[in-house]
Amino acid sequence: MPAPTPTPPPTKLSLKNLTLEVAHWQPNQTISPAHTLVFLHEGLGSVAMWRDWPARLCQRLGCAGLVYSRQGYGQSDPVANVRGPSGEAAGVRHGRLLSDYMHREALEILPALLEVLNIQRPVLVGHSDGGTIALIHASRFEVAACVVMAPHVMVEDISIQAILAARQAYEHGPLRQRLAPYHADVDCAFWQWNDVWLSEAFRGFDIRPELGSIRAPLLAIQGENDPYGTMAQIDEIARAVPQAQLLKLPDCGHSPHRDQPEAVMQALQTFIRDL
Questions:
Q1: Mean pLDDT per 10-residue run, the chain (275 residues)?
Q2: Is 45:18 a contact under the CB 8 Å cutoff?
Q3: Which of 30, 166, 204, 213 to pair with 186, CA 20 to 30 A apart?
Q4: CA 105, CA 196: separation in Å to the nearest integer?
Q5: Residue 190 in contact with residue 218, Cβ under 8 Å?
Q6: Cβ of 8: how many Cβ atoms within 10 Å?
Q7: How far apart are CA 242 and CA 228, in angstroms?
Q8: CA 161 from chain center: how many Å?
Q9: DSSP string over the chain
Q10: Which residues are bridge partners to 66 per DSSP?
């Protein structure tokens, strides 16, 4: 059995006047990998918060991998005045996120990152916000496949309730302390996500009309005990994307790759083998 592939130390990459934290690796094999898996993190995620799951998955599948932290997360550049008025200077945003922030990531930042790293037709693996970003990108750009875990295609009341609870846990509970090791500026990471989701403008966020443009193979995964969304999220994907495959996991919350890692790995192994 080959030795496990450790996640390589993250490096910094300059892109669109930003410096982003990235980790990019090849599998331990002599032939070129058939696919590169690009991992897109959740609303409070980062390179470090994926832990070793991407590397283990890539090792198991014989795929190359890319993980990066979006602006304001992990060790990537922070967002200046993150709770102030939204704006942009020299192409770099500052202030509060606007309700189109996932579209901007999917249609501007991610394509530029893939071009710089010469990654063509990736397999996108997105979690939560990252799953939404993957869906938006796949609706406009050619990808080999798209895997989404606990994505948001619309805003549900259950999501808002969970995000309000997260704010309470951050201000009055242990959440800030738990997140701090994973972000250079933990307040930036938390507030940019929490503020936009609880804004009035974001209540109308809905990408269902865009899903029908996805032509790539698609696997959508949802936990039955996810406090941030119901099965309606992936059922709506299936209605719009005929080739979509669904995996509904019992005893699973908002992070299928952490709550049910083996079930998710097995599902991805079968899905990617059949590409």
A1: 63 94 82 84 98 94 95 97 94 94 97 96 98 98 98 98 98 98 98 98 98 98 98 98 98 98 96 91
A2: no
A3: 204
A4: 15
A5: no
A6: 14
A7: 25
A8: 21
A9: -PPP-PPPPPEEEEETTEEEEEEEE--SSSSPPS-EEEEE--TT--TGGGTTHHHHHHHHHT-EEEEEPPTTSTTS---TTTTS--EEETTEEESSPPTTHHHHIIIIIHHHHHHHTT--S-EEEEETHHHHHHHHHHHHS--SEEEEES--SB--HHHHHHHHHHHHHHHHSSHHHHHGGG-SSHHHHHHHHHHHHTSGGGGG-B-HHHHTT--S-EEEEEETT-TT--THHHHHHHHH-TTEEEEEESS--S-HHHHSHHHHHHHHHHHHHT-
A10: 24, 38
Q: Report CA torsion sign: 185, 188, 191, 194.
A: negative
CA distances from residue 105 to 53, 100, 216 in whole angstroms, order as listed: 23, 9, 19
Q: What is the pTM of this model?
A: 0.96
Residue 109 is encoded by which pair of tokens? 């930042």
Place of tokens 């501007």: 108
Please state, in angstroms and rounded to a whole number, the distance separating the CA atoms of residues 110 and 6.
Answer: 24
Q: Tell me if 53 sits within 8 A of 61, measured CB to CB.
A: no
